[in-house]
Design goal:
By secondary structure, this protein is α+β, with helices and mostly antiparallel strands. The protein has 5 helices and 6 strands. The chain has a single domain, classed as Alpha-Beta Plaits. Strands 2, 3, 5 and 6 form a 4-stranded antiparallel beta sheet that branches. The chain has a two-stranded antiparallel sheet with strand order 1-4. The mean pLDDT is about 85.
Length: about 200
């Protein structure tokens, strides 16, 4: 290697280092991209989400026809419906509508199927906070135990279907799941910890 090539390589290395340092120093004077959530935000985070954002699923039970299309189209079987008969009226009722959001991959197939072929009772909200202490609390129960719901008979004109606001059903189901589910899971977890401590 001759002297010219040697000093050219040194100059190129120094130039590259200076370019890298220039990028680094330029970030010192920019506004930060990250922020402390939820303490230091100037507007509600839901307003910053994209229009087509897919948050937690919810079901508006009062307009659910019980067609099971959402359950059949779900590729990972995270939706579960059960039905029974009312002993007095002999009418068919929905006794269970569960969505396991611990398994859900937010593909939106159930929402599309319900929107196109039924009433649009199942949909994505703009909620995303699903943090729980136990995995079992991510199974949202939209029908409370021992409180079956009659099935909705959809009118021919879809504009007559009473769609409610987004959000309250997901919130209620999440609160119920976090209140009801963890007790059993915590009990199993405590038992497992005891067994592990005894074994060690």
């Amino acid at each position: 290697m001759n002297v010219t090539t040697y000093f050219t390589s040194i100059g190129h290395a120094a130039n590259t280092i200076l370019e890298g340092m220039a990028v680094t120093f330029s970030h010192l004077f920019r506004k930060p991209i990250t922020f402390q959530y939820p303490d230091r935000i100037d507007r509600p985070l839901s307003t910053t989400l994209p229009d087509r954002y897919r948050g937690l699923l919810e079901v508006q039970i009062d307009i659910c026809t019980g067609c099971r299309r959402c359950e059949r189209v779900c590729p990972i079987a995270c939706i579960a419906l059960d039905f029974g008969k009312n002993p007095e009226t002999k009418a068919r009722e929905m006794t269970r509508f569960d969505i396991d959001l611990g398994k859900c991959m937010f593909c939106g197939l159930c929402v599309e199927e319900c929107k196109l072929n039924s009433t649009g009772a199942i949909r994505h909200t703009r909620e995303f906070e699903g943090t729980t202490e136990v995995l079992g609390a991510l199974t949202f129960r939209f029908i409370e135990p021992a409180k079956p719901r009659p099935l909705y008979k959809a009118p021919k004109d879809k504009s007559e279907i009473p769609l409610g606001p987004y959000g309250p059903w997901a919130r209620e189901a999440r609160e119920r799941a976090q209140r009801d589910n963890p007790a059993l899971v915590r009990e199993r977890l405590a038992r497992w910890r005891e067994e592990r401590e005894r074994a060690s």
